[in-house]
Amino acid sequence: MVATDRIGELFADARGMYESALERVAQGDVRDTAEKAWCATLLATNALILARTGDEPQRTPGTSIELGKLADRDRAIQSLTGRYYSRRGQLHGECFYLGFCEPVAQTERRIRDTIAYVQDAEVLART
How is 26-91 classified by DSSP, letter by letter? Predict the structure, then answer.
């Protein structure tokens, strides 16, 4: 598979995961919604890394490391790192794994703002 095809697939999957998150938040399942938003973040980040390096990370630690390396080289990518770690820690770690989703309004805001992260990653993947 050509890398550009895979990049497109990853971004499409990220948008699909985000849409699934919105469906679940409407049903009041914040915990599952948080994980779906985290997955959208991870997919978009992996697509960005693949676009910039030619290699797709296979595990989350690799994604984190590679995102840091890209941010060191490109100031524009630095804007994603805090947002990435915010979602990794709060949505994935605290809310999904530990069940600590309070305050729910803040968690839901972070979930809804995930689409902006996906869109920003996609723009950066093209530059």
Answer: HTT-HHHHHHHHHHHHHHHHHHHHHHHHS---SSHHHHHHHHHHHHHH-HHHHHHHHHHHHIIIII
**Positive or negative torsion for Cα 48, 10, 87, 64:** negative
Task: Identify the band that residue 2 occupies on the pLDDT scale cut at 50, 70 and 90.
Answer: low
- Residues 76-99 have a mean pLDDT of 96
User: Taking the mean position of all CA atoms in its chain, how far away is CA 60?
Assistant: 11
Question: How far is the C-alpha of 111 from the C-alpha of 22, rounded, in Å?
Answer: 8
Mean of pLDDT values over 98-111: 95
Selection from 81, 69, 77, 57 nearest residue 126 by Cα: 77
3 state DSSP class of 37: helix
Using DSSP's 3-state secondary structure scheme, residue 123 falls into helix
Residue the block writes with tokens 């869109």: 119
